[in-house]
Write a structure and sequence with these properties.
Helix content is about 45%, strand content about 10%. It is built from seven helices and seven strands; from the N terminus they run ααββαβαβαβαβαβ. It is elongated. About 20% of the residues are buried.
Length: about 230
């Protein structure tokens, strides 16, 4: 969805709230008028006709979901915006989509900080994660595995091991993986070949032999291997 479409939806939602609120206020005035008449009291302003008081309840049922949606969207966006500001203060690059969801993070020189580790646990819409040069712990990979929509992962020049790479097979959307400069070990060729969903695999400056890379190309025919 484009930003223009998102803005259009927001405008439409705001218009619905205004119309529903006006109707609800109008119905409430009529309800107050009727109650005063029942008590034998003369209202300050007479209304030309009356409507069933159930109209108020119907309008409440219409207005409340809209108001809740507005408040929920505003709250989510402000929370995401605050998180983006916090990450940028740590020199972490974070990019959002038109809905306000964080979809890309580049840790840059800051690396995988404690704050970023905490933030990753709630980024269910994240599509791209760049952790080049970071210290990767076993717990970090566990968090990464919760990012089920992750498509691009850069673990270049990290201390990730073959055991850690095996876990990446549990990321169903992963299409691009970079492990440049990683000491992969003898069994890594076999491990990487299990990532059948990959379309790009970068293994520059690794210890993979030509024979292992050729085997990878054979086992992953749909994947472009950059070496």
């Amino acid at each position: 969805m484009s930003e223009g479409a998102g803005a259009g939806q927001a405008d439409s939602l705001a218009e619905r709230v205004m119309i529903a609120s006006h109707s609800m206020r109008h119905a409430t005035e009529r309800w107050n008028f009727r109650k005063l008449m029942e008590r034998g009291m003369k209202p300050a302003v007479e209304l030309p006709d009356e409507r069933d008081t159930s109209l108020v309840h119907r309008l409440v049922a219409q207005v409340l979901p809209v108001l809740i949606a507005v408040l929920f969207i505003a709250g989510c966006r402000s929370e995401a915006d605050r998180l983006v500001d916090q990450l940028r203060q740590q020199k972490v690059i974070a990019r959002q989509n038109s809905a306000g969801d964080i979809i890309e993070i580049d840790a840059g020189e800051a690396g995988l900080t404690p704050e970023l580790r905490l933030a990753l646990k709630g980024l269910r819409e994240l599509r791209s994660l760049h952790l080049s040069g970071s210290e990767i712990e076993a717990a970090d990979l566990t968090v990464i595995l919760t990012l089920q929509r992750l498509e691009t992962l850069d673990l270049s020049y990290t201390n990730v091991t073959s055991k850690g790479l095996v876990m990446l097979a549990r990321l169903p959307s992963l299409r691009s993986l970079a492990v440049n400069g990683v000491r992969l070990g003898d069994s890594s060729g076999t491990v990487l070949s299990q990532l059948a969903g990959l379309r790009t695999l970068s293994v520059m400056e690794t210890d993979l032999s030509d024979e292992q890379i050729s085997e990878l190309e054979r086992r992953l025919p749909a994947c472009l291997i950059v070496r």
